[in-house]
Amino acid sequence: MTAATILASVYDPHSVEKKWYAIWKDAGYFMPSMDSDKPGFSIVMPPPNVTGQLHLGHAQDNALQDILSRFKRMQGFNVLWLPGTDHAGIATQARVEESLQSEGLSRWDLGREKFLERVWDWKNLYGSKISEQLSLLGSSCDWTRERFTMDEGCSRAVREAFVHLYEKGLIYQGDYIINWCPKCHTAISDIEVEHQDTEGKLWHIKYPSEDGDSFVIVATTRPETMLGDTGVAVHPEDSRYSRLIGKNVVLPLMNRNIPVVADEYVDREFGTGAVKVTPAHDPNDFEIGFRHKLETLVVMNNDATMNENAGIYNGMDRYECRKKVVEDLEAQGLLVKIEEHQHAVGHCHRCDTTIEPLVSRQWFVKMKPLAEPAIRAVKEGDIKFVPERFTRIYVSWMENIRDWCISRQLWWGHRIPVWYCDDCGEIICSRNDPEACPSCSNKELRQDEDVLDTWFSSALWPFSTMGWPDASSHDLKYFYPTTVLVTGRDIIFFWVARMIFSGLEFTGKIPFEFVNIHGLIMDGLGRKMSKSLGNGIDPIEVIDKYGADTLRFSLVTGSTPGNDIRFHWDKVENTRNFANKIWNASRFVIMNLQAFEGRELKRDDLSTADRWMFSRLNKCIATITDSLELFDHGEAASRLYDFIWDEFCDWYIELVKGDLNSDDKGRRAVVQNVLCLVLTDIVKLLHPFMPFISEEIYQYLPGHSVTLMLESWPQIRPDFQDDSAVESMNRAMEIIRAIRNVRSEFVVNPGSSVECLVVSSDNGIASDISSCSAYISRMARLNKLTIADYVADPSMVCASAVLPYCEILVPLAGLIDFEKETARLTKELNNVLADISKIEAKLQNEKFTARAPAEVVAKEKGRVEELITKRDGLLKRINVLQARQE
Q1: CB-based contacts of 664: which residues, under 8 Å, 6+ apart?
Q2: How far is CA 510 from the centre of its chain?
Q3: 13 in Cβ contact with 583 (< 8 Å)
Q4: Are 303 and 297 within 8 A, CB to CB?
Q5: Within a 10 A sphere around the Cβ of 434, how many other Cβ atoms?
Q6: Contact call for residues 746 and 815 (beta carbons, < 8 A)
Q7: What secondary structure does DSSP assign to 601-640, as a single string?
Q8: 25 vs 142, 709, 839, CA distance in Å?
């Protein structure tokens, strides 16, 4: 065998990964066949932000999609994994505005048209960065079909969708309470608001009655908004305030009369049981104001400064105003008290600025008519969530959904396709830009300034990328509905729900059959990764150091559907070691295929170890296949890891090394064929998870084709399944492990050969053990193995191990110095006893058990149990040695 046909001594992931990705991509292996009779399998990639950078969440999400795509290709499906990026309205505009600020400019200095030119330049310069990083990960998506949420096709789909909903009466414009980000200067949806527990205060303020004879005390966490109060609300059954209902109180500082209304929303137990009502600045107050026809008075500007309706506080920042309002209330004797109060404060998902609820004129989508069929589709099983528990979360949110505010006060995005005629007041909503007003023929039309929420275009992603609204599109006919959506639990409401109701509304079909929900990547302490904490991990740095295969596999193993996982560098190191283990084992096998001749193996050709190996391989194939079909990537990866490392490398290869060096050419040929077949199936099973190393190894195996990507998924070999061989080998391996443990416990020189007596009164088991005696002797380093039904010399001092079906005896004479070993074990025992005594004293100390955290106490109890087990083992070994000395 020449050097060119032998794997390098050390695996270099960087040269291998760069080489193979280019080969795959250039050969078009990622593209589905256009005229295939194969069943279709399709996934659309959750589009990352066009100006974003790969983070571990992207790496995990795309690794899972790639595993499914490669698995299904090998199963014979015609696979389309469609990639793309999102224009990310708020985030991208913010990035470009930051760039302008460094030049001393703002978007207003440029104007809308010039500013958008700058954004497109930015997108063209940086937009391919994340796609390139996804390529480094090994993503086998069809880059020839890459889409962008503002490309020509998606833009056409967005306009069609808007006009469709508008003509159906589901889109309307109105004044409504929205979440306003003072930094991003735009409305954001409810699900883009992150509520953070904050240590705040609760101010108790007197509101005098109109006649001056009494007052009512209200409690508020935002005293600056009281300037916009247009009422006070109490519970209709609260006897404390029944006499005030229908009367007026005077709004402090503003000297404006406002009514006291009765509303069941009021919590009688919170604060004083009386609440200020500020309809323009609180969503719950907005609803109360609507029910009682209260005035809606906006007292704040879009930049979170106070406006002219705030009187003398006009122009102040909201927090500056808060401080001044409190001072003035105190000066007028209207501030009763201040309490410390923890409450949830909404922050912008994008910039972390505290949001302001504001009444504003916005565009909305009526959600109830769209939500109802989307709920049915999931309840009736047309769309299945994996894990199933997310079904309840989805349904609960959809059943309580509010109308969707779809307008954003940005310049970057899909501009709302509505035009106004200032001559006659006509409002035109059109699929094409109108040239003139249809009512008065005026050509000077004014388009709505707002753009659509980014999620509006993302909601159309599964079908807009397939050619919708062109019903004749091949991709739409063949690949839609898509098969599965793989995404994180954090965007079920942002994106998943919106795709479901959009797909049903615009295509009459579900957008996907399955929603595979995975958890989030946390740091080692279980915290969400963020810039503020400084705990983020750059996946590109991991790839540069360890390779993409290692990163992919480390993000998958140990994961369970829907649950968060913690990132540990130790896990990455272990996976790198796993890759090296695979490489070294493969190199050994390939080096031992000299003069290899493929032959059809017959059952009678196979040894017990061979049949055990094929039986375990069958089980492995079945488990991994079933797990991937159920989207349990973590279970599949863990089973593969155990099979490769433990059963193939540590057992089978070691068991047959002697056969490879045997003079029995027939036996050697059988072992070569078994090794070749098993290793070929291993790299096939490994390929979806670790595509690069598996492809490289595959190319050195006899009979390889042009690429592993196009190979068939491994099949079970029922003719080679042998449960009795599995049982025999399991017994043999238990005996081998028991002997190894004895050698370790008594510190027997690893190079020394020992004798062993296996005692079993069951003739059948004894015969079975005897059939595996060669394996036992070789793997346990025995110079003599005796199998008997009794102990011929009971006085012989032996170390022993008891298994359910036999007793194992290892004579110690001549192997160790009994006195020295007894002394060593006694010293170790004394240390263990001292540790037990110390911890037990601590646990008996009531101060410790009362003050220490429960997990600390539990840890100490567990340590005692471990030490007691160790103590018992040491006593047993000492007794054996003392018996010999007596």
Answers
A1: none
A2: 24
A3: no
A4: no
A5: 17
A6: yes
A7: --GGG--HHHHHHHHHHHHHHHHHHHHHHTT-HHHHHHHH
A8: 9, 11, 61
To which H or E segment does residue 285 belong?
A: helix 283-292
Task: Name the helix (H) or strand (E) containing 231.
Answer: strand 231-234
Q: Does an H or E element contain 116, and which?
A: helix 112-126
What phi, psi does 343 have (nearest 5°)? -150, 165
Q: Which of these, 650, 666, 667, 584, lies nearest to 613 by C-alpha position?
A: 650
SS3 label, residue 596: coil
Q: Where are the beta strands (DSSP E) in 439-560?
A: 445-447, 451-452, 482-488, 512-518, 521-522
- Output the six-digit token pair for 613: 């190996």
Q: How confident is the model at residue 3 (pLDDT cuts 50, 70, 90)?
A: very low
CB atoms within 10 A of CB 771: 14
Amino acid at 328: D
DSSP secondary structure string for all residues of 162-218: HHHHHHTT-EEEEEEEEEEETTTTEEE-GGGEEEEEEEEEEEEEEEEBTTSS-EEEE
**All residues at 6 or more sequence positions from 323 whose CB lies less than 8 Å from its CB, including other chains:** none
As a whole number of angstroms, the distance between CA 351 and CA 183 comes to: 8
Q: What one-character-per-residue DSSP string does 695-732 give?
A: HHHHTTSTT--S-GGGSPPP---GGG--HHHHHHHHHH
Q: What would the pLDDT profile of 585-625 be if each residue is shown by its tens digit?
A: 999 999 999 888 888 999 999 999 999 999 999 999 999 99
pLDDT for 802-830, tens place per residue? Answer: 777 888 778 777 666 667 667 777 887 88
Q: Which residue has the tokens 């050390």?
A: 10
Interval 425-453: pLDDT, tens: 999 999 999 999 999 999 999 999 999 99
How far lies 773's CA from each of 601, 780, 859, in Å?
Answer: 24, 10, 43
DSSP state of 795: T
* CA-based nearest residue to 191, from 352, 58, 27, 348: 348
Higher-pLDDT residue of 399, 869: 399
Residue in 150, 149, 147 with CA at minimum distance from that of residue 475? 147
**Alpha-carbon distance 39 to 311, whole Å?**
69
| 109, two tokens | 């200095």
**Which residue has 């055990």 as its token pair?**
612
pLDDT, tens digit (0-9, with 9 covering 90-100), for 747-794? 777 777 888 888 888 888 889 888 898 999 999 889 888 888 876 666
CA count, 13 A, side-chain hemisphere, 267: 5
Q: Are 708 and 70 in contact (CB under 8 A)?
A: no
Determine what percent of the chain is predicted with pLDDT higher than 70: 95
Instruction: Check residue 409 and report its DSSP letter.
Output: S
Token pair recorded at residue 409: 């006060």
Report the distance separating Cα 513 and Cα 486, nearest Å: 11
Strands 40-44 and 78-82, bridge-based pairing: parallel
Is the model more confident about 80 or about 597? Answer: 80
pLDDT tens for residues 192-213?
A: 677 777 788 889 999 998 887 7
Measuring CA to CA, how many Å separate 93 from each of 412, 784, 822? 6, 78, 76
Q: Give CA–CA dist 331/322, Å, rounded.
A: 14
Cβ neighbours of residue 667 under 8 Å, at least 6 residues apart?
A: 607, 659
Cis check for the bond before 469: say yes or no (omega within 30 of 0): yes
Can you say how many angstroms the Cα of residue 300 is from the centroid of all Cα atoms in its chain? Answer: 39
Distance CA 556, CA 67 (A): 10
Interval 233-239 mean pLDDT? 90
